[in-house]
Amino acid sequence: MLKNPETLKIVVLAMFGVTYVLLMLLPKIRAYIALGCAAIFVVLGAIPFTGDNGVLNAIDWNVLMMIAGTMGTVYFFIESKMPALLADVIIRKMPNVKWAIIALSLFAGIISAFVDNVATVLMVAPVALTIAKKLNISPVSSIIAIAVASNLQGAATLVGDTTSILLGGYANMSFLDFFFLNGKVGIFWIVQLGALASTLVLMWIFRKDTQKINIQDKTKVSDYFPTVLLLGTILLLIAASFFERKPETTNGLICVALFLVGLVREIIKTRSFKIFKASMKEIDFFTLLLLASLFVVIGTLTNVGIVADIGDLIGGITNNPFILFTIIVWISVLLSAFIDNIPYIATMLPVVEAMAPSIGFGTAKPYVLYFGLLVGATLGGNLTPIGASANITGIGILRSAGHEVKTKDFMKISVPFTLSAVITGYLLVWVLWK
User: Fold this and answer.
1) Which end of the chain lies in a sparser environment, N or C, as judged by fewer CB atoms within 10 Å?
2) Domain, as residue range, for 82
3) Per residue in 395-424, pLDDT tens?
4) Domains contained in the chain, number
5) Residue by residue, what is the 3-state secondary structure of the chain?
């Protein structure tokens, strides 16, 4: 146990640097790397296990429960085949391949605003594969469009992506705050205008794909109850946002409770506990462990004063709010193209808050910096094939279907798509929230 504060700070910073490098180099074991780092910090005495600044308080249980509960409910939603039915209905209305691809990307975006991005790609990509097979064309471009569109809309709502859930938990934002906050337009509408700009880019990219479509197959929904559960989750999160004095874990409890309702119903319906095992497999406990460990790591950085030091360092570059905002957005875009945005967002949220007073925010929450960080880190992941889980999933689906995706082919779509969305979001966040 180290007692000298300065020595402790140096050791913690060095450990964090090593941990972050290992998180990038060894993604398959990153949860265990973060857990190991958190455990070392506890042993060193950099963070106590209990107390106001301890491990148990550093972990955001509300965020973890929201993610786990939503994942479980989404599993039932996918199994019911409702997303596939909705995709079929949309496709049957489209006159040619170009509009089918655009419709699928927009549909994936709408779904991913409320459902995990990876799950969205898994739902919608098979429809694109079916169309490509029947028309004897390559599905590569359409599935890339679906992947980047789903990742874009993850920033739109409180439950759309882990990064949004992290922001909501840290800034104490409700579901409705993503739509309207402090009398201003929220991040949801900014993302929609970014999606509009990127859709125009897709229309130009696919302008020559005018093959006709004639698909008569229609998916049959096996159960409508999971759809009710998912809509119920959204409605209850909205309702909870109207209550100011509520437990900090309210949103998490809502998500977990509705998942448990669906689980109990399935067990009773099937008279078997096999569904319990299947649904547990769909909850990404690896990511939950990673997040819990990262909360402890970031809590340690805050406890020993490193977060405040980093905030002072970045804030010391300039006291011009626009320049600082610009730096945050575009560094986030660049970094998120190559590294996982979950640990990045988890690290930067307290840093952004720490630097805010130096540019005139005082004790007010720096929403312009929060939203700039979210736009840059979430949308920036679309630049490269490895920048977002949705992109990796889409490429994996194509590989399974016998289609290898070259980085240059991916970036022909992803770069103009991402830049149009980020530039739109960057300008709107500043204009509306400066």
Assistant:
1) N
2) 5-433
3) 877 887 788 888 888 889 999 999 999 999
4) 1
5) CCCCHHHHHHHHHHHHHHHHHHHHHCHHHHHHHHHHHHHHHHHHCCCCCCCCCCHHHHCCHHHHHHHHHHHHHHHHHHHCCHHHHHHHHHHHCCCEHHHHHHHHHHHHHHHHCCCCHHHHHHHHHHHHHHHHHHHCCCCHHHHHHHHHHHHHHCCCCCCCCHHHHHHHHHCCCCCHHHCEECCEECHHHHHHHHHHHHHHHHHHHCCCCCCECCCCCCCCCCCCHHHHHHHHHHHHHHHHCCCCCCCCCHHHHHHHHHHHHHHHHHHHHHCCCHHHHHHHHHCCHHHHHHHHHHHHHHHHHHHCCHHHHHHHHHHCCCCCHHHHHHHHHHHHHHHHCCCCHHHHHHHHHHHHHHHHHHHCCCCCCCHHHHHHHHHHHHHHCCCCCCCCHHHHHHHHHHHHCCCCCCHHHHHHHHHHHHHHHHHHHHHHHHHHHC
